Amino acid sequence: MAKMNAFYAQSGGVTAVINASAAGVIEAAREHKDKIGKVYAGLNGIVGALQEELIDTSKESASTIAALRHTPSGAFGSCRYKLKGFDENQAEYQRLIEVFRAHNIGYFFYNGGGDSADTCLKVAQMSHHMGFPIQAIHIPKTVDNDLPFTDCSPGFGSVAKYVAVSTKEASMDVASMARSSTKVFILEVMGRHAGWIAAASALAAEQAGDPPHIILLPEVPFERERFIAEVERCVSEHGYCVIVASEGTQYKDGALLAGSIHKDAFGHQQLGGVAPTLASMIKKAHGYKYHWALADYLQRSARHIASKTDVEQAYAVGRAAVEKALKGKHSIMVTIERKESARYGWTIGEAPLEKVANVEKKMPRSFISKDGYGITAKGRAYLAPLIEGEDYPPYKHGIPQYARLKKVMVAKKINTPFTV
Amino acid sequence: MAKMNAFYAQSGGVTAVINASAAGVIEAAREHKDKIGKVYAGLNGIVGALQEELIDTSKESASTIAALRHTPSGAFGSCRYKLKGFDENQAEYQRLIEVFRAHNIGYFFYNGGGDSADTCLKVAQMSHHMGFPIQAIHIPKTVDNDLPFTDCSPGFGSVAKYVAVSTKEASMDVASMARSSTKVFILEVMGRHAGWIAAASALAAEQAGDPPHIILLPEVPFERERFIAEVERCVSEHGYCVIVASEGTQYKDGALLAGSIHKDAFGHQQLGGVAPTLASMIKKAHGYKYHWALADYLQRSARHIASKTDVEQAYAVGRAAVEKALKGKHSIMVTIERKESARYGWTIGEAPLEKVANVEKKMPRSFISKDGYGITAKGRAYLAPLIEGEDYPPYKHGIPQYARLKKVMVAKKINTPFTV
């Protein structure tokens, strides 16, 4: 096969380690200049391909690409753009192939979650259909850890570590002042449909009785009275109560706790968060002094406290995507397989995209404690290795030094603009 | 003077490095066993002294005390208990001296902010008045950085580093998705009266145009229209806008932005935060998609990203308190003095408590940019060295290993209980 260029794009919510996958792709491709020409990255994800806004990564130095390994967020830009279904909108897929053909792109590496796995598959199918077959390979990424067939999703381990460490530290703060001050602390974390991130906070507990005392997961229907009673039990037993709540915490009927509407000072309706909602429930029931934190983007961008395991896996799936493509593989998602051994170990595997696309992996009930407020030994055994190890970025004057790209754009070859 | 014991207590809001000061006190005292007997720590601060709940630190191993240097929060417990004025309530001061006399305590090391400096002075005065002179020395601590006479307050540098690093990371997240997603990000940080913590977020900017784009300080009256316009200018110029707001952000008339009242789903009135209030203003004016984070206790307990400079200073002021006491000094606060040199350097100094007590150090106007939304070169020159250097705690299984004390209590010698 003639030497073809490669296209790489980042999709959906970014993570602390998605750029490590980019580094893996680009460094692996540079090692095979005989087979792969240039690696073009989509500016702001797939939208960059649709609009023919391609970043020429060959213009970035080896040290800059290496620095991507310790740089959070999406260095090339990401987007929340889901291509429409095949039948409703073939034009978008045709446009993609048109752009890929124009730039001699034979490899499509798409770095994202469930939606992008679906897009990746569609691109592969359409490219064959249009007689310009492209090797489309999906590189897993999501802090939600909800991708199927892979033991874990790159990006999750680092959020898990951030949440576990932050829960431990904030809990010690509360414990040291609970007698005369704050008795209840609530940390709201990400996770709309799956509670993986909140569950990881349990790793902060190293001994029986250690916080967090209550973890709220979307998988476990919220029962207000039982929750209120549990908080009281915690405060009387420990002197304080630390709660970690998923943003997707919901009642049995599926109504989100975050759904309570507040009217702010300007008459503008806004969605109240889970944490303040829980806080006011507790205040009303017990009158305890409370504090709450909303980590929001801090949790998924916290490269300064990334999991070494997560960084290594993110880099490895990027490299593997290129190596598998060179072996002629396509329409697959690279996966992480956990070794069947006492000591944690992992290898790289793969799964066919037909099976991956749009399947969501929830937390197994066997990982959740009987009362629904914590995790089991089995859950801990799964989660613990994912936050193992530290991988600090370099610092200068007290600030982490993250990569800054030149982002040299590739000259356009198609003159018809495309609006998304 | 006969060999006397020492009393050490932690006061007010805890920090990531207050235990480093405790380590400094205890290790220095252990080096002078000829002059100082045991170091007793107050359980939950000064309340522990009033209730004769004293922790015998001699029962803690050298390695445990050394580990306090990298352990956040108040290991002996702290409290928000301000002794009343001399005249209203001499009983409390008399009780303190009574307890100190009963346990042969000749040294009083009080680790806290402005209020505790006042308490420290009162204890010194009362002890002389009662004929049992105690050498009271104040060890500075406050994340608010508002203590006078000292160049900075131990505890501040680490919060400053956490806020600067978090602002940088979250900003990169927003920047990478702004085109199709969130355009405005707001981080609410501590600082009711002084904007030191919010100001430190400016250190995240290493090049012109880098975020944060708008910093809101209590020192600068909030003007809604000007703010709304500035946000729009930022989004059109950079594609997104990152705002760091002090919890104490207020209007010209002193009304707090955080004062807007929300009625939650349960009819319970709660104080809305600054971040959501700003977010809804922006949403109403521009319709931009926004996200916001509330760091709360995470920022002051984040020992995992502590400033090395801050840790060293916190430890040094603890040691210095003991060394100064042994030189016969009392009724002073240990201070940090910045050297008059191009390269940052510092030494230990002292200030008389009469002058320190209840004086609050605001940010000088010369540190704040003309438009009030950022800091000047002078402000940066002051702040930058305080976040210099990293001082990581040890980790095990991905979790920082923080000290756990045995907290062996000293047998009570006074049988009359004292209720606070």
TrEMBL record, chains A, B:
Instruction: Choose any GO biological process term that the UniProt entry carries and state it.
Output: fructose 6-phosphate metabolic process
- Indicate whether Kinase appears among the record's keywords: yes
Q: Where in the cell is it found?
A: Cytoplasm
Residue numbers for the site described as Important for catalytic activity?
A: K141
Pfam families, alphabetized? PFK (PF00365)
Entry binding sites for diphosphate = G13
User: GO terms for molecular function, please?
Assistant: 6-phosphofructokinase activity; diphosphate-fructose-6-phosphate 1-phosphotransferase activity; metal ion binding
NCBIfam families hit by this protein: PRK14072.1
Please give the HAMAP family that the UniProt record associates with this protein.
Phosphofructokinase_II_B2
Protein name, UniProt field: Pyrophosphate--fructose 6-phosphate 1-phosphotransferase
The species is: Gammaproteobacteria bacterium LSUCC0057
Per the UniProt record, the lineage of the source organism begins with: Bacteria, Pseudomonadati, Pseudomonadota, Gammaproteobacteria, Cellvibrionales
